[in-house]
C-alpha cells in the first residue's frame, strides 16, 4: 500500500536511522506526472512523545529552513501525518555519507586522500559558518550551532557536492536537554569537552566536532571510542588525541597542525570561527598540485561506492 504524506509525498523505502529520526527515500508527486526525489525524516517514537523536544523541533524546523547555503541540505516542507506525527521533507542527496566514503577506501585497503578530505572539510566548515553567521530579521546575530557534526551527517553527492544535514534535529535535541545515551547513539564521540559539562554550544564546539571528523576520516579509526558512554565522556574530557602519524605517514605537517588546533581542549585555543579553519585548509590545498574540485570528488564517490558493493 502506497503511503502518501500531505497528499503528495510518497514514502518509498527506509534509507537510514539515527538516534533521533528515521530517514526515508521519498518522491514528490505534482501536476502532469511531475515527480522529484526527496528525503523524508520522521522523529522516532520515543521522542515524538516528548513535548519539550517537539516544541524545539518545530521551532528549529522553521529557523533552519531560513538557512540558504549550497552546502546545507535544504528543507522543502514540514508537516504532520494523519496520526499527528511530525515529518520533514528535505532535498534528496544521491551519494554517500562521509562515513561510507571513508569505508569504501578502507574496504580497498587504502587511506582516504588527504587532499580530498581537506576539500570536503572546507565545504562542511563553510556550511557551519553560514549557520553561525545567521542574523534575525532585524539584523541582530542569531547563530545556529549544529552540535551534531558527524561523518553520518555529511553527505557527498555523486556530483561531488558536499551537504551538511541534521541542523534541526541536532539543535532541538540540544535545546530540550536530551542527553541520555539511548537518545544520542554514537553522537557522544563528537561532542566538544565543554559540552559534556553542559556548557552552551558555540562556533568552537562545532569546530571541535569537525576536527574529530577529519581526524577519523584520515586515520580510519574512531577517536573517542568505548562501549560505556561515561568512559567515552572521560576520554573526551581528557582530550588525549593520538598523533595521526601513528596511522599514516603521508600527511603534511600543516594539516596535522590545523586538526590539532581544532581539537584543543580549551575552546579559546581553537579556531575563532569555522571560516578561519576553512581558510587555513584552503591555503594548504593551494600549496599543492593536486586537483580537488567537485569533478574529482565525484569520481572518488563513484569509486568508493564500487568498493562497498
Structure description:
With 309 residues, the protein is an alpha+beta fold. It contains ten helices and nine strands. Strand 8 (154-157) and strand 9 (162-164) form a beta hairpin. Helix 4 (114-132) packs antiparallel against helix 6.
Write a short abstract of this structure.
With 309 residues, the protein is α+β, with helices and mostly antiparallel strands. Helix content is 39%, strand content 17%.
Major pleated sheet:
6 strands, antiparallel
* Spatial ordering of strands, largest sheet: 1-2-3-4-6-5
Fraction of residues in helices?
25-40%
Individual helix count: 10
Radius of gyration: 19 Å
Morphology: globular
Q: Which segments are poorly predicted (pLDDT under 50) over 5 or more consecutive residues?
A: 174-185
Overall pLDDT level: 89
* Oligomeric state, counting identical vs distinct chains: single chain
N to C succession of SSEs? EEEEHHEEEHHEEHHHHHH
Q: What is the end-to-end distance?
A: 30 Å
Strand content: 15-25%
Question: In total, how many beta strands?
Answer: 9
Main structural class: alpha+beta
